[in-house]
Amino acid sequence: MNPDRYHLTLTAGGRPVMHGWWASETTARAQFTTWIGSWGGLPGAQVTLVDEEAGETLTTWPEES
Length: 65
Hints:
With 65 residues, the protein is an alpha+beta fold.
C-alpha cells in the first residue's frame, strides 16, 4: 500500500494552502469532504483529490464546468 497514493490539495486565490497524502481512497475522500466544510469559505478556494499512482484527478471542488 502506497502511503502517498491519494494526494489532496487546497488552493485559495491560486496559491497552495495545504496538502495531504493518504494510502486509503476512503480516508482521502472523507478528508476531501472535511476540507470543503472547513476551508471552502476561503476566497477562491479549490480542493482537488488526485490518485498519484494512476495519474488521475478523482474529484475537484467546486466542480469545473
